[in-house]
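CHAIN AND CONFORMATION:
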Amino acid sequence: MHKIPREIISFFQAQGAVIVSTIDAHGFPHSSCKGIIEIKEDGFVYLLDLYHGQTSRFLKANSHIALTAVDEHKFKGYCLKGVARMVTDTILAEELLEAWDVHITSRITQRLLRNIRGDKGHTGHPEILLPDPKYLIEIEIQEIVDLTPHHIV
């Protein structure tokens, strides 16, 4: 397990979504977009998956996973690599479902504020149309990769 520094936690929390990469049956990467529900300094990250699709199938066959986030404006980014498991603990899942509601409400609020400021994005509010989460993914982080070129830091 790899501890996650507070600076990196804050960076990931500031992103609206992350790219989640798993490995398919042929060894090719599969990428999907997901929101982080909780990220802890002790090296655990929690995602709620809204679909029982390819990500869940690929994780059942190969638990290796990577989470990538970048901020183009700050020219900064990180990749968190680890091992994932699907959580069956209903108490933990219920707590994180409550966090999901807070997360979605915050995303809708941020979209409304950006629209009011004139920073037009999507014409609707797609977060409202998202389905309820289907399962929880717990990731034990084993490596942190700083994506910022070192000569620029």
Observations:
- Helices lie at 6-14, 54-61, 90-116.
- The beta strands are 18-23, 29-34, 36-39, 44-49, 64-71, 76-87, 135-146.
